[in-house]
Amino acid sequence: MIIKKDRMGALLGTLAQHKTVFVPALIDGVSKFAPYREGLDVRFDLHNTKLPPKDLLFPQTQKMYRYGETAEGGHYVEQFDESSERVLFGVRPCDMRSINLLDDVFLTKGFVDEFYEAQRKKLLTVCITCAAPAETCFCESMGLSPNEAPDADILLKSCEDCYKVTAQTQKGEAALADWRDFLEDTQAQVLPGKTSLRLNFEGVPQKLSRMYEDPIWDEISTKCLNCGTCTFVCPTCYCFDISQENKMKEGVRFRCWDSCMFSEYTAMAGWHNPRPTKKERVRNRFMHKLCFFEERYGKTLCVGCGRCVECCPVALDITRLIDDIGASDA
Amino acid sequence: MSDIQEAMRSRAKELLESGEVNAVIGWEAGRFENQTTPLITSQAAKTQRLVFNEYCVNNLGKYPRDLTAKGKVAIFARGCESRAIIRLLSDEVIKRENVYIIGIGCPGMRDRTTGELLKKCAECRHGDPVIYDEMLGEPQAKPATQERFAEIQKIEALPRAEREAYFTNAFSKCIRCYACRNVCPCCTCRQCFVDQRREGWLGKQNNIAENRFYGLTRVMHVGDRCIECGECERVCPMDLPLMSLNRKVIYDINNLFGEYETALSLDEPPSALTTYKVDDVEEFM
Amino acid sequence: MPKITVQHGCAKAQLALVPKVAKVIKITVETPDVKSFRLQMPNGEASFLGEPGQFGIMGIIGSGECVFVISAQGEDWIEFTVKRVGQVTEMLHALSEGDEVFVRGPYGNWWPYEDCRGRDMLFIAGGIGLPPVRSFLQYCLEHRADYGRIDLVYSGSTYDELVFKHQLFDEWKTVDNMGVHVSLYHEDSRWDGEVAYTAPYLEKLAIDPMGSNGEGRVAVICGGPSLYRTGTKELLKEGYAPENVLTTLEMRMKCGIGKCGRCNIGGKFICLDGPVFSLEEVAQMNRDE
Fold this sequence. Notes:
heterotrimer, A: 7-stranded mixed β-sheet, 4-stranded antiparallel β-sheet, 10 helices, 11 strands, B: alpha/beta
């Protein structure tokens, strides 16, 4: 089955009648996943959106519950459920993998995060393979392929003027019913993508576990600004803070993205901070991505999307770090 | 530029080997074509990695703040670095004897993907260092190709609703990564109001109200100390027009208190917003 | 006897991120800056009860939350002992009996009380480190026959800083085969007992690391960073096996359920895998202090 590229607009229009369909789009110069509507600058040609799709499942600010006083003088708590039927359309293999990793975080290890779970169940994922990865893409070095996305409900393989359509899950199979009018039963040549940036990641997590006190952390953290850019554009960074906003006797408690780069992140009551300087914070971020997560979930928390490589104000480059660790004799 | 690069390497090496400085701040090549990244090193051998080309986009001027506690540093300084250092000096963040300034004339830097002159460099009025201990090569005397307040005047000419939309739009994009603050040589508070969680000035939620509160508070706090290096705008991952905010304040200062440009020499600490005169304009009263 | 094995992971997963409203039914002033808050669910709803060592999160309605080990619990109540150190704890201290708070939990792992059966026990705490230790000590006392000799070494910098004075100086003194050893770091006009830091006091007490039955005594230690450092060093010097020394690690926490990220030490999340670890495990961690 294929769908012609010039039929995509019509397909999106149809799908958007029933569900909110998030597509990669350019809005005010920033590319991100936005709800499809007529006139939106939809961009399936971008390598990666600047902002990852994680906020569909894990919004930057998410209301958890409201509270206030009852007429009897007690208090009430009322949980929010703002989940809705959504389609993530045009996500790339690296971002698809990032959702698989977020699933591990929010849905496993003893506690299920009810807010994440509610939205995850209502999400259909449609992935487009990458025929031409960007120079900063290194997914293949992180064990992914730009041509596959095993976790996606529907996979669109990039061809010259069309996409080859495959349903990969029952959910995807069922969803394809709405696509019938746009699909053609013809063959097409898939354009395979290849990343030009290659790293040797083998053995890096094991080496890192022995490099906690290595001088490399002093070296790379010196130029770090300790801003949160890398963590916010990262599709897999999932740390959050919990806070509240009150109006008179009522309030809302919400969670919001937080960053391990911020000094306040680990500061305890009385201001003792186990990660007092840039060095400890930078070390924790990279160790978490490349080593600690592996110890905990058996997977690497970097998908090679290249966003942090692209966005870091001082070009502190995770790919160079990986190469340096790989070359070290730790 | 390759002559300058050679001179940078040998001077850096000499300064480190002689023990005159503890660390050197410059640029080195990144992984990708036309990409550079700050290089901060105490090892003489590493000075061979120093580069100087049209893609040295980072203003290095804030690094002395973190480094001078451990001893004297040498920094390669163009106009923007030299003014950042004046900022740190007049805000008493660093001491003059702890920084050795090696001046370099600047022709303006380019975007690594488009090859175009960076916006901040097109707007730059002082490409050559305004303070230095020694100079490598000749000043470039690059003129600004953009009129300083052209953008502000354009925005001010807009109808009120459009002006409001302009800023609302901008702040709706902000992800509050604080890159603008952390890169800024004026943002050197020991503890930023953003991080004062006990006082709770700023809510943690991301919405236009909180984002705008952060952005505007920062602008007013930077106020008359902004050296117009444009780094905040360059590093913003969401492309917020941050310099138009900063310049609006500077534009008003110029209109209210006469011609004003800060951090051009050590003798003139910023004064416009910190000095009170009885005949100050008080339009809002 | 089995090797002491600390289990990692939440003992009883109940409430995740959304709290319940609880009523403060009793406030005990322990010291000038420490109070214990006894909480009960309104309308007769069953309270969550934890395993010894588990913690809960108590919050001011309309403000922040803080993490506290459940220092005591009854059939339908739990108690948190709170030192006034920051913004939220200051607000907690301003509460009165009858006020309502948010509470969620229980979280974290628990003291390995099963594996410790038959052993002699040494509890070591400093200042506000006693409440987490007491949850375990109390369990041992409730199952007195299951455990051998029990010693408690507790110190504080001033007399005022000592919590649970009634138990220290009355109740526990009468327990069979139990020694209570209290010291102050500095001279105090109200104190005629031992004046010593914890480590030298331990050295002086010379409590046999093998225990009376030769099976190896279990030491449980909880206190500030310096007590932890010097105390554990002393225990190892005296010959305690690292797997027989148990402690709780502390990091800033927000979610309590191993999701929000900040409390990791290496690949472990203190809120979910901890807070209880053996010294043997701590030694293998890549750890920020």
